[in-house]
Amino acid sequence: MRVAILAHGSRGDIQPMVALGDELRRRGHSVVMTVNENLAAWAARAGIDVVPMKPDMSAFLGSDTARNNMARGKVLTFLKALGLEEREANRSIIDACITAAEGADLVISTIMTAYRGECLAKALGVPHRTSSLYPVLDAGNHASFLSPVRDLRLRWLNLASWRLLDIGFWQENKPNVDEMCDVLGIARFKRRPRVELIPSVAMYSGDVASRPEEWHERHEIVGWQALSADLRARLGEDVPPGLDAWLDAGSAPIFFGFGSTPVADPSAMLHDIARLTRERGVRGLICAGWSDFGADGAELPDHLHLANNVDFDAVLPRCRAAVHHGGSGTTASVLRAGLPSVIAGVLADQAYWAWRIEKLGAGVRLPFHKITADRLGAALDAALERTAQAKELGARVSANTVRTTAADVVERWAAELGIQPEVTTPEALGRSSGSGR
């Protein structure tokens, strides 16, 4: 079976799709994936065929405009700028999606590419399914991920917030979708494609985000997809010797990492972290992510350590607590390690996960734009008091964490669609003969 995965976004958006693609490839399927150009070479390390496309999300998120908007909490202004970036890159995205879908038996999209998947289904006659890394479908038990209020208390109000999100997202994306229809030579959509009715796989924990009663059985929550040790090694995630020695040399540190959310003033952030850790007599491990700490990062006191991309599953269990941006993947890794969190979210799912973790008693939330040394210190103190709850929730999440369930769902879709998988790799041949699939 040839599967086209239409991935798009920052590393947190791409990495789970790489994990899915890698598992499908291991099972003997052919996988082609669209990936933003700044992450294309990295994703290709997994052995997946990659189709690079614009925009460069690292360059966009690292721009002064994006960093300042995030630092000030101007979410709508940020999203408007992101929409313009998407519009400028639209032809590149269209071409990449078409290239990836050529000869595909199945197209799998994400929230950023769902309408594009419908274009391909209409033009090429290829089956289309969707995936998500956080709740994106109508729910009466909480408001949409863009609502400033997480729960509007009344079911109909929560559902209304999702309707507004659907309308706004379609209006923002319609010019891009119209152009894609024109390129494919098909009629433009007169109405918004009902992508929420397409069978989907949600790759996050139902222990943290419970299944809404409104969902049809066609939508499945399968848990966060942990990366295998082999895949992490191929992607360059490890524990550098210097970090390993530093971790062994003292007490469990506080982890600080904001992933693909660049820090507007790295020097000030380092100063704040140095101060609050020194005052509490604790050590701090700072994961740079997409932030550039420059020369300041080379002159840290002994109780601090700066690293780039590391193996979260190996490093976080050696930490005491985590201060992070609340991306889906980072939240999953922190929970699996049983750590209490301070989640400083900015956008979309980040604020949602912050709300859920706080509500479940496993951490506290502190909006990214409100961070000061005093506020961060107070939030960290409060989070550490929730260590027992975090360990209990983490144990449940870990027990339900899997590496293969999303791939199982994809293979079930294929069977339902009458797609005959071609088993080609030794691993897949062995699994097929031994599992009765």
Automatic annotation (TrEMBL):
Pathway per the UniProt entry: Antibiotic biosynthesis; vancomycin biosynthesis
Domain Erythromycin biosynthesis protein CIII-like C-terminal: 296-400
Protein name: UDP:flavonoid glycosyltransferase YjiC, YdhE family
Superkingdom in the source lineage: Bacteria
Keywords: Antibiotic biosynthesis, Transferase
Annotated Glycosyltransferase family 28 N-terminal domain residues: 3-101
InterPro entries noted in UniProt: EryCIII-like_C, Glycosyltransferase_28, GlycoTrans_28_N, UDP_glucos_trans
Biological processes annotated in GO: carbohydrate metabolic process; vancomycin biosynthetic process
Pfam families referenced in this protein's UniProt entry, alphabetically: EryCIII-like_C, Glyco_transf_28
Signal peptide residues on this chain, from the entry's feature table: none
Database matches in Gene3D superfamilies: Glycogen Phosphorylase B
Organism in which the protein naturally occurs: Lentzea flaviverrucosa
GO MF entries: hexosyltransferase activity; UDP-glycosyltransferase activity
